[in-house]
């Protein structure tokens, strides 16, 4: 688990991170001031920091942007699972499915 002190994200202060946690943009474990984060949470913190500070996404727009990104990541995970399932099929069956898909 990673603590706030070990995040090392330039320009991120604890008050801003607290706001993101309270807005449910980021998941944290533990009590306020002693939060701990998993790697996936740290990646999301970095993403939100980039969106807010480098891309200047407004606070009201953040829930929409994060929801769309979450949907995109879920779609990519599902596509990867589908590709893995197709790869495990016998070649003739895989070819038939790909033909039906127009690929």
Low-confidence stretches: none
* Biggest sheet: strand arrangement: 1-2
Instruction: Please provide the count of β strands.
Output: 2
* H/E element sequence: EHEHHH
- Mean pLDDT, to the nearest integer, reads 93
> Which structural class should the secondary elements be placed in?
mainly alpha
Specify the overall morphology.
elongated
Q: What is the overall number of helices?
A: 4
Fraction of residues in helices? 55-70%
Instruction: Quickly count the domains.
Output: 2
Major β-sheet profile:
2 strands, antiparallel
Radius of gyration: 19 Å
What gap, in angstroms, lies between the N and C termini? 43 Å
Q: Which strand-content bin applies to the residues? A: under 5%
Describe, in plain words, how this protein is organized in 3D.
With 103 residues, this protein is mainly alpha-helical. It has two domains: 1-57, no CATH class; 60-103. Helix content is 59%, strand content 4%. The protein has a two-stranded antiparallel ribbon. The longest helix has 26 residues, at 62-87. The protein is elongated and about 55 Å long.
List keywords for this structure.
103 residues; mainly alpha; 2 domains
Could you outline the blueprint of secondary structure elements for this entry?
Elements: E1 2-3, H1 14-22, E2 36-37, H2 39-53, H3 62-87, H4 91-101
Antiparallel strand pairs: 1-2
